[in-house]
Amino acid sequence: MMQAQIQFERIRKAIEYIQCNFKDQPNLDEVAKHIHLSPAHFQRLFTEWAGISPKKFLQYISLTHAKNLLKQERSVFDATFETGLSSTSRLHELFVQIEGMTPAEYKNGGANLHIEYHFAATPFGEVLIASTAKGICAMNFVEQRELALQQLKAQFPNAAFLVQKNDLQNSALAIFKLTEHEQVQALPQIKLHLKGTAFQLKVWEYLLKIPKGQLSSYGNIAELLGNPKASRAVGTAIGNNPVAFLIPCHRVIQATGVLGEYHWGKARKTAIIGWEGAQCDAKY
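Given the sequence above, the corresponding structure tokens read:
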């Protein structure tokens, strides 16, 4: 297991503890004891990973913080749509572009598709990333490599698979390492080549509009799609998102402020939300 994965597993245990006990505002000693580390070691490890102290991170994942973000949501979304492409809050949307697979590619299980893939370390654990000649077709957080690969191949049973790194994948993975300014300077446009229904593709496109460090609700996404009663369908589409992090389904939570479930684990969702909040806070 890679060092980054080992580090995140420890952080995840701490986050799960904080998540379950945030109402009691556990202190550094309590969290460190839970994951069997000294307070000083835990403080250093957590700060290296998140860029902020465990105490500060606790603020980002509390229910109150989530509710406050949701209260800002309407003005954030209005501003996003009103300012158009000049808005820096739409940076993510600008350099991540979705292309749906053709009906033939969708229906025939990926026949004639050549898919290259490899496993890579990220701040939130290992991912399996895969791409066609047109773009990234999958990026999934991994608990068991063999199972993750089986699930990928089940999505494209007739495709040809090859273990191979490429520039498309490297550009996508760079998003975990670069600041927004660095992304503008260094990243080419990231192409996603996805298998999904027209409705799913539309939902995934709207997820790209949620600014980093902000949250939306299932109901709000449904309203933006012009169908306020489609919250359940929106939730299903979000749950079927094939590209973790790049399509930020982690930024969608329940209207009450409860973070809700996540395809790749609730603790990981909490970690990403807190990490993004810390990154944005560091800019000011």
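The radius of gyration is 19 Å. Try to locate this feature in the token string yourself.
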